[in-house]
Amino acid sequence: MAYVLAGGRGSRLMELTDNRAKPAVYFGGMSRIIDFALSNALNSGIRRIGVATQYKAHSLIRHMQRAWNFMRPERNESFDILPASQRIDEFHWYEGTADAVFQNIDIIASHAPQYIVILAGDHIYKMDYELMLQQHVQEGADVTVGCIEVPRMQATAFGVMHVDENGQITSFLEKPKDPPAMPGKPDVALASMGIYVFTTEFLFEQLRRDADDPESRRDFGGDIIPYIVKHGKAVAHLFSSSAIRAGAQIEEYWRDVGTLDAYWEANIDLTDVVPKLNMYDREWPIWTDQIIAAPAKFVHDEEGRRGMAVSSLISQDCIVSGASAWRSLLFTGVKMGSFSDVQEGVILPYCNIGRGARLKRVIVDSGVRIPEGLVVGEDPVADAQRFRRTDSGICLITKSMIDRLD
């Protein structure tokens, strides 16, 4: 069984998560972030899936109901959406990642899985969990932790582990200020991906023990994993050994799109001629909600008023009317008016770009109507006064920000 933790807000995405959980944020033209963990599980042969939700979960739950309703009990498949619902008592929601599993032990047990894969629902990557499961069984581990090599000082936001020559984890530090380096690689740290494999009964034992500890924060990275490292056998699984690559010579791709800069960059990465993340791979597809809509349309062919897109991803139901998109993503239902121009833009579903507007290095939230003639990305001072602007110059534009312009 795969159990996806999808309850977090993702506050570093600022206003982009004011009305939706981070796993529900749109990505890549047609998908949501959570579709990557769910698709990896399905493509890995896992047919029992549970998803724990908490923060502003309506759009996330609605998406899963529409996109993931094809699992059938008669085929020994199941898809459980598990909102925080005070199942233990009347006072507690999910208090941490471990508690989000503990409160649903009875539901997990009803499916009787021998092994359980715990997943974070807010990362962008392709991975075959079957290979990680095989390693877990072969090595007789109590827990197997998915991990990735990262530059050492970027590891301060992750759980970081020491491993011995056999790959066994000897220490696990949650978000250390001075991350320890890998043996023989002084500038690289081994960071947790938030992916864990357990034998189900062993996990239940650890969750019950942790629930009885008044000092625990009910967290996998902060409590459960460090305890097993000290008292059991915890093994590291390198992402490089099970990543689904875009090509034999292309490095593996994993992104925590937890900031506006990282989110914008990961989307724009897809416009590369040969992107490191292959969204066109029919052998390892990213499943999502298949909206019934018309094809994208480009109209007008006059000098200065030509419907065109260069190095861009244009989704269904888009109309580019005498406008141009350069190295951009137009999600479902975006309409661009004549003489408008978008450069390096991530334009979320059902936005309307007014005539003559010029947008550069932007993220436009879903449903926003950009006024005619609006210019963003050319005057840093004006951008910062009107919109959410990052230090690197990426501007987030939301409905409320546009409303304030009036």
TrEMBL record:
Q: Known InterPro entries for this protein?
A: ADP-Glc_PPase, ADP_Glu_pyroP_CS, GlgC_bac, GlmU/GlgC-like_hexapep, NTP_transferase_dom, Nucleotide-diphossugar_trans, Trimer_LpxA-like_sf
Which species is this record about? Sphingobium lignivorans
Which GO MF terms are attached to this record? glucose-1-phosphate adenylyltransferase activity
Record keyword Nucleotide-binding present: yes
Described by its record, this protein's role is as follows: Involved in the biosynthesis of ADP-glucose, a building block required for the elongation reactions to produce glycogen. Catalyzes the reaction between ATP and alpha-D-glucose 1-phosphate (G1P) to produce pyrophosphate and ADP-Glc.
**Which pathway or pathways does this protein act in?**
Glycan biosynthesis; glycogen biosynthesis
Q: Which Gene3D superfamilies match?
A: Hexapeptide repeat proteins, Spore Coat Polysaccharide Biosynthesis Protein SpsA, Chain A
Task: Cite the EC number.
Answer: 2.7.7.27
Any idea what this protein is called?
A: Glucose-1-phosphate adenylyltransferase
Residues engaged in binding alpha-D-glucose 1-phosphate: 94, 159, 174-175, 192
From the UniProt record, list the reaction(s) this protein catalyses: alpha-D-glucose 1-phosphate + ATP + H(+) = ADP-alpha-D-glucose + diphosphate
What family does the entry list?
A: Belongs to the bacterial/plant glucose-1-phosphate adenylyltransferase family.
Quaternary arrangement and interactors, per the entry? Homotetramer.
In chain numbering, where does the site feature Could play a key role in the communication between the regulatory and the substrate sites fall?
54, 93
The question of whether DNA damage is a record keyword is answered with no
Q: Print the keywords alphabetically.
A: ATP-binding, Carbohydrate metabolism, Glycogen biosynthesis, Glycogen metabolism, Nucleotide-binding, Nucleotidyltransferase, Transferase
Q: Which CDD domains match?
A: ADP_Glucose_PP (cd02508), LbH_G1P_AT_C (cd04651)
Cited HAMAP family: GlgC
In what residue span(s) does the Glucose-1-phosphate adenylyltransferase/Bifunctional protein GlmU-like C-terminal hexapeptide domain sit? 294-397
**Coding gene?**
glgC
